[in-house]
C-alpha cells in the first residue's frame, strides 16, 4: 500500500538524517580538534623559542642524552674521592670482598691527615693476610701472630696504634728537618721507624755552632713521644747551657719535637744571647 | 793525588752518559760550582773526564771521595748490576732500635778485623736506604777499586740487597759484617735475582700502592677502554673469563721488573711404557729458563693475547708471592706421580 511505502520512505529519511547529524557532529569534533592541535603547536613553538633563547644566554649546548666518556670518568673519580674522604674520616674502615675483608687504616697526627694503609684479609679457611701495604718495618707479623685469629678488633686497633704513632714520629722529624734546618747541624739522623733521632742543634738560627746534642729514643712503638731523652752539651760549655739542656730534656719528653723548637723561637730573646 | 785515584775517577766519569755528568758531579759536591763552570760539558767525554781529573787534582781528591762518586753513579744506574736478595733472621722480638753510627762502626770493625785492605764507604738516602760500597784487597795487596761489592740495607728490615763482585769468596765475610752490624743472627740467600733493584724491593717489601687497592676495592669503577661500537665481540664471555683469571693471578697494577725465571727440573721422564725410551729410572735433568726485558708483564699478557691457556701454571704466577725466580722441581714422593717445588 501507499502508507507502507510512505512509512518506509519516512524511516529511510529518518536514518539518513541521523547519519547526517552524526557526520556533522564528527566533522565538528574534528574541526574542534584540529583547532586545538593548531593551538598546541603554536604553544610548543613558543616554548621552544623561549628555551633556545635561554640556552643561548647560558651558553649551554643541548647535548645528546648519553653522557660523554669524559663525563663518566670525571664522575667516577669524584665517587672514589668521596669514598676516600669517608675512609679518612672514619680511621679504620672495611669492605667485604669475595673472599674476605679489605681494611683501610688511615692515619693522622694532630689534625693533619697522613698516609692510608690497606690490608686484604682472607677469612677462609682461617683469617690470614693476603695482601697489604703496611711498611715492612712495622711488626705486622708479630701483631698478627698474637691477635689476628682470636680478636680481630684488637689486631686492627693495635696495628692502627703502631701506624699512627709511626707517621706521627715521622711527621715531627720531617717538620723539624723542613722548618728548622738552620738550627740543626747537617741532617737529622733517623731510622726507618723514626724511633731514634740523633742531632746537634742550637736554639737560635743565626749562630754557626750547635752546642746541644740530642738523642731521642722512642722505645714504645705505639707512642709518638720519646720514652728516653738525652740532651747534652760539650764538656767546656758554660753552666747556663747545661741548665738549658736539662730544661730541653724535659720539654722533648712532653712536647712534639717541632712544637718544642717553635717554643725556642718565642723564648729566644729571654734566655740565650 | 794518587795516580790510581786519578785513573779511577777518569774511568768513572767516562761511564756516565755525557748529559748527566754535570748533574752527577754537582750531587757529588766535591768540586765547587765555580770549578764546574770551567769545564765544557759539550766536548767529547774523553776531554771532559780529563778536565774533571785535573780539577780533582787541584782539590787533592783521595780514594774516599772517589768512592762516593762511584756510589752516586751506581745509585742512579743500579740496573747495570745483578742484585741478589738475602734474608736475615733474629732471635726474639724486642723493639729494634737502629742507630746509624753504631751500624757503620760495627760493620767497619768486623770487616777490618778480618781484612786490613778494604775500602768501605757509606751513603744514606731519604728512603732510609743505606748504600755500602766495599772494594776488596788481600792481606798483601791494596783494595781493587774495580772489583767492588755493593750492599743496600733499609734499617729495621730483614732484607739486604747485595751485588757481589767477581770475588765470591768475600761474600761470607760481608754477610758476617752485616749480621754483626744490624744485630741479626743468621742470613741466607734467597732464590731471587734481578738487574732491577727496585723490582726486588717491591717484591720483598710487598710494596702494593694505594692505587692498586683502590682498583681492587672499587673494581666497578675501573675505567674500561673506549670500545668501537662497530666491532662485535664474538667471544666476549671467554675474553672476560681470561681477563678475570689474569687479574686474579697477577693482580691489578704494574708488575715488578724481572728479567728471567729459571726452573731446574729433576723429574722423571714420563713416556709411554711401550715406547721403551729412557729405561733407566734416573731423573731427566733439564733447565728451563724464561728471559724477557720484563718477564712478569709478558707472562701476564700471554693469556689475553691468546698464546697460552688461562689459568697459567702456578709455577709462573707464584713468582712475586713466593719471592723467588729460581726453582728446583723434583719428583713428588708418594703414590701419585707429580712434581713439587722445593723450598
TrEMBL record, chain A:
GO terms for cellular component: Mis6-Sim4 complex; nucleus. Pfam families: CENP-O (PF09496). It comes from the Eukaryota. The keyword Nucleus applies. Belongs to the CENP-O/MCM21 family. This is Centromere protein O. Keywords: Centromere, Chromosome, Coiled coil, Nucleus. PANTHER family: CENTROMERE PROTEIN O, INNER KINETOCHORE SUBUNIT MAL2. Residues 6-57 form a coiled coil. It is found in: Chromosome, Centromere; Nucleus. Its main location: nucleus. The keyword Coiled coil applies.
TrEMBL record, chain B:
GO terms for cellular component: chromosome, centromeric region; nucleoplasm. GO terms for biological process: CENP-A containing chromatin assembly; chromosome segregation. Belongs to the CENP-N/CHL4 family. This is CENPN protein. It is found in: Chromosome, Centromere; Nucleus. The keyword Nucleus applies. The keyword Lipid metabolism does not apply. Keywords: Centromere, Chromosome, Nucleus. Its main location: nucleus.
Amino acid at each position: 500500500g501507499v502508507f507502507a511505502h510512505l512509512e518506509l520512505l519516512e524511516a529511510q529519511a529518518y536514518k539518513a538524517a541521523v547519519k547526517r547529524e552524526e557526520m556533522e557532529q564528527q566533522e565538528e569534533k574534528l574541526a574542534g580538534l584540529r583547532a586545538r592541535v593548531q593551538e598546541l603547536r603554536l604553544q610548543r613553538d613558543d616554548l621552544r623559542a623561549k628555551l633556545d633563547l635561554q640556552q643561548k644566554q647560558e651558553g649551554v649546548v643541548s647535548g645528546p642524552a648519553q653522557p660523554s666518556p669524559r663525563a663518566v670518568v670525571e664522575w667516577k673519580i669524584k665517587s672514589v674521592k668521596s669514598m676516600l674522604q669517608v675512609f679518612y674520616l672514619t680511621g679504620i674502615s672495611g669492605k667485604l670482598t669475595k673472599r674476605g675483608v679489605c681494611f683501610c687504616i688511615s692515619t693522622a697526627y694532630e689534625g693533619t691527615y697522613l698516609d692510608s694503609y690497606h690490608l686484604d684479609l682472607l677469612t677462609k679457611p682461617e683469617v690470614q693476610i693476603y695482601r697489604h701495604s703496611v711498611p715492612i718495618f712495622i711488626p705486622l707479623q708479630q701483631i698478627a701472630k698474637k691477635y689476628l685469629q682470636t680478636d680481630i678488633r684488637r689486631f686492627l686497633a693495635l696495628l692502627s696504634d703502631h701506624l699512627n704513632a709511626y707517621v706521627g714520629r715521622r711527621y715531627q722529624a720531617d717538620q723539624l728537618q723542613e722548618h728548622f734546618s738552620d738550627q740543626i747541624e747537617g741532617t737529622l739522623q733517623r731510622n726507618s721507624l723514626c724511633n731514634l733521632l740523633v742531632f746537634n742543634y742550637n736554639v737560635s738560627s743565626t749562630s754557626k755552632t750547635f752546642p746541644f746534642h740530642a738523642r731521642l729514643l722512642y722505645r714504645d712503638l705505639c707512642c709518638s713521644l720519646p720514652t728516653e731523652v738525652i740532651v747534652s752539651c760539650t764538656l767546656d760549655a758554660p753552666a747556663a747551657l747545661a741548665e738549658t739542656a736539662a730544661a730541653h730534656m724535659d720539654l722533648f719528653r712532653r712536647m712534639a719535637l717541632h712544637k718544642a723548637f717553635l717554643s725556642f723561637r718565642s723564648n729566644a730573646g729571654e734566655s740565650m744571647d | 793525588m794518587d795516580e790510581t785515584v786519578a785513573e779511577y775517577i777518569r774511568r768513572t766519569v767516562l761511564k756516565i752518559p755525557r748529559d748527566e755528568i754535570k748533574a752527577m758531579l754537582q750531587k757529588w759536591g766535591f768540586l765547587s760550582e765555580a770549578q764546574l763552570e770551567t769545564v765544557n760539558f759539550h766536548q767529547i767525554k774523553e776531554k771532559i773526564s780529563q778536565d774533571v781529573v785535573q780539577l780533582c787534582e787541584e782539590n787533592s781528591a783521595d780514594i774516599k771521595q772517589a768512592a762516593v762518586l762511584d756510589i752516586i753513579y751506581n745509585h742512579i744506574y743500579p740496573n747495570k748490576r745483578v742484585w741478589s736478595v738475602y734474608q736475615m733472621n733474629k732471635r726474639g722480638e724486642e723493639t729494634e732500635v737502629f742507630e746509624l753510627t753504631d751500624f757503620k762502626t760495627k760493620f767497619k770493625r768486623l770487616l777490618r778485623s778480618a781484612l786490613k785492605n778494604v775500602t768501605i764507604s757509606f751513603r744514606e738516602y731519604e728512603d732510609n736506604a743505606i748504600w755500602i760500597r766495599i772494594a776488596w784487597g788481600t792481606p798483601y795487596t791494596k783494595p781493587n777499586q774495580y772489583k767492588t761489592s755493593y750492599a743496600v740495607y733499609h734499617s729495621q728490615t730483614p732484607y739486604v740487597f747485595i751485588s757481589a763482585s767477581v770475588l765470591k769468596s768475600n761474600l761470607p765475610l760481608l754477610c758476617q759484617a752485616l749480621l754483626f752490624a744490624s744485630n741479626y743472627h743468621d742470613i741466607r740467600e734467597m732464590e731471587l735475582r734481578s738487574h732491577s733493584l727496585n723490582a726486588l724491593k717491591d717484591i720483598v717489601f710487598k710494596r702494593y700502592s694505594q692505587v692498586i687497592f683502590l682498583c681492587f676495592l672499587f673494581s666497578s669503577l675501573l675505567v674500561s677502554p673506549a670500545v668501537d661500537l662497530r666491532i662485535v665481540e664474538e667471544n666476549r664471555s671467554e675474553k672476560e673469563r681470561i681477563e678475570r683469571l689474569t687479574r686474579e693471578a697477577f693482580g691489578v697494577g704494574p708488575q715488578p721488573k724481572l728479567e728471567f725465571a729459571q726452573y731446574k727440573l729433576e723429574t722423571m721422564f714420563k713416556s709411554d711404557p711401550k715406547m721403551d725410551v729412557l729405561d733407566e729410572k734416573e731423573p731427566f735433568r733439564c733447565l728451563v729458563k724464561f728471559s724477557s726485558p720484563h718477564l712478569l708483564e709478558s707472562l701476564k699478557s700471554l693469556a689475553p693475547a691468546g698464546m697460552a691457556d688461562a689459568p697459567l701454571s702456578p709455577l709462573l704466577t707464584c713468582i712475586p708471592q713466593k719471592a723467588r725466580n729460581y726453582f728446583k722441581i723434583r719428583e713428588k714422593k708418594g703414590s701419585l706421580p707429580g712434581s713439587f717445588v722445593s723450598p
